[in-house]
# Entry
Amino acid sequence: MTGTNNMFRNLFSDKDKPKKNVEEKKAVKTESVPESKDISVPLCNNPIIIDLKNITQKYNNTGSVTTVFDNFNLSVYDNPDEGQFVVLIGASGCGKSTILRYIAGLQKPTSGEIIIKGKKQTDSDKIGMVFQQYSSLPWRTVMENVALALEIKGVSKTERETRAMEFIKIVGLEGHENKYAKYPILSGGQLQRVAIARNLIANEDILLMDEPFGALDVNTRLKMQDSLVEIWRNTKGDPTIILVTHDLSEAVYLAHHVVILNSNPGRIEEIIKIDLPKMRDSSIKRTSAFSEYVHYLEDVMVKINKSKN
Ligand code: ADP
# Structure
């Protein structure tokens, strides 16, 4: 970071409401965005919880080099006592899942640093991720799945089951704890709840979600969006939830900030603060402010896609 102004690239200030006129928004952006690759979420002076610094990702396949990131930067500020949703959207292949894999400790960039809660990530630092595919262990019960991280740490059975039960309740699976975590004993939505609980118990500060509801039918998907808000509200911790989605309505519904990524190389097109009430319920989807945010994201995505053709 080179200065306070460089730390922020939010489209809307706290007081701004979304406006219909996209050109007007662009003007706001041009005025307020300095020429800098330092990109941060959100607008605040809290400590940085996730810092991707000068990330370059190249793949060398049979002589041809693909550059996915070239000096990419993203800083996510912590939001103590509340937590937050940061949603990543962008064209397929722009690097959204790669960003999650870096934070999870599943992939290392060609060069650059990943700093989590102020500490450079080491090989043993892993953060759980909820994937589109159900990732629970089907030969274990819900309780055994949720308690897994504590079992690996050597926590006693009684203690880990007490803790696991807390999280099972938070994700709304009380009564299902002794069932095997497999379809069709549990529904797709329930299996995703198991994955959320399993990851939250391992790390209450950061939860990574890669298209978590992509495989669910529309009704279950909508219910799971509400459940996720509810889970976030009910956790004692204040997790920063980084979620990748292709669904722009889902992005606006869940996000406190939406990061829109462009590709070739992967870069941040815009970061938009979603200035809707922090605690949301589905009635917000019927407000004009909600629709305007969705339309705005559609416009940006169309612009990005047009520039690629
Ligand atoms: P997204 O999640 O935005 O769809 P990904 O993060 O999955 O994108 O992938 C980013 C880019 O990295 C894609 O264009 C993909 O083709 C490229 N990529 C990933 N792995 C390899 C690889 N082993 N060789 C070449 N390119 C790769």
